[in-house]
Amino acid sequence: MFKHILLATDGSAACDQATRTAIGLARTHGARLTALYVVDPYPYLGIGQANPLGFQAYIAAAHAHAGKALGRAAELCDDGGPPVAMETRIVEEATSAHGIAQTARDEKADLIVIGSHGHGALRKIMLGSVTTRVLAEAIVPVLVVR
């Protein structure tokens, strides 16, 4: 049924379950799996505009975090079953939600898998803001994993 699954990850422990779900679906359907990390420069803009070195440090740290997040997803691909080949993507210059939805379009993914939320006291009551925006913007089905 699914031919190409896009997994959105931020590297949090909460994303591990979404990653496992995406891997299981890729195994079941024989689908391609692409893990995506979006480096969102916008939280830093306005704070660090006066200090370009600060922005460069932020981007460097974000890329390091992306490497760890995508590395964790790759570890899970080889854990507990036949390995799943996974491609990785890092997107810059976009908000997280737009980067996820746009990458799904560009890569012709037919499913987006994303965690329901990050950390926070309201996590059992409502979806995370990125997940909510992806649901609004995506043109393919979105599987939200708790």
The helix content is 40-55%
- The structural class is alpha/beta
Tell me the β content. 15-25%
List the domain count as a whole number.
1
Radius of gyration, Cα only, in angstroms?
A: 15 Å
- Averaging pLDDT over every residue, what do you get? 87
Distance between the termini: 22 Å
Organism: Caenimonas sedimenti
Family: Belongs to the universal stress protein A family.
Domain UspA: 1-146
Pfam families: Usp
Briefly say what this structure is:
This protein is α/β, with parallel strands linked by helices and 146 residues long.
Could you describe the 3D structure shown?
With 146 residues, the chain is of the alpha/beta class. It has a single domain, classed as HUPs (Rossmann fold), CATH 3.40.50. Helix content is 42%, strand content 18%. It is built from 4 helices and 5 strands, in the order βαβαβαβαβ. Helix 1 (15-29) crosses helix 2. The longest helix is centred in the middle third of the chain and has 26 residues, at 52-77. It starts with a strand and ends with a strand.
